[in-house]
Amino acid sequence: MIIGLTGGIGSGKSAAADRFASAHGIHVVDADIKSRVVVEPGRPALQHIVDRFGSDILLENGSLNRAALRERVFQDVDQRLWLEALLHPLIREEIANDLASATSPYALLVSPLLVESGQHAMTERIIVVDVPEATQILRTSQRDGVPDAQIKAIMQAQAKREDRLRHAHDIILNDQDLATLHAQVDALHERYLAMTTGATP
């Protein structure tokens, strides 16, 4: 069983995924990490990006300047759509290969764009980590040190909170402390174990 885990920027997806992995030994595939793999130096996708945006999109060591690229594509919808058309199929292939290697009772696919990218088609259930939008902005600003306007642009490109929740089979409300988050993850883990063994969840 493959379970998708998603949520907007700053919602706490990583903290939830870390709990599934560290406390319960669940195989976690992170779409953000896969998105970095497909644009590593020597990969064809990186050359396509340089051809489109110029060599100033690279850092001195030849790797992608992700912050510069993010700034460019979130200012221009056409550029963002071009980039997504290039990267999403490559990321999906990387994800599929990794999920196929899972040996835990179920596997977790963590992706901020689970719904928008079509990656949810690879999953049988979806968990949404949900927080109020003001909390997303505050946490992301504290974590990344980026302006509120850039955070809001990223949020605009992600599914609306209501759209994500409409796809959810399970919701983790992450507006309190880490212990509260962990308790919700632990309860879901028990439910998923019951589902994989055929017991009533």
TrEMBL record:
Catalyzed reaction equations: 3'-dephospho-CoA + ATP = ADP + CoA + H(+)
Assigned GO CC terms: cytoplasm
The EC number(s) this enzyme carries: 2.7.1.24
UniProt-annotated binding residues for ATP: 10-15
Alphabetized GO MF terms: ATP binding; dephospho-CoA kinase activity
CDD domains named in the record: DPCK
Pathway: Cofactor biosynthesis; coenzyme A biosynthesis; CoA from (R)-pantothenate: step 5/5
Biological function: Catalyzes the phosphorylation of the 3'-hydroxyl group of dephosphocoenzyme A to form coenzyme A.
Protein name: Dephospho-CoA kinase
Species whose genome carries this gene: Halopseudomonas laoshanensis
Taxonomic lineage of the native organism: Bacteria, Pseudomonadati, Pseudomonadota, Gammaproteobacteria, Pseudomonadales
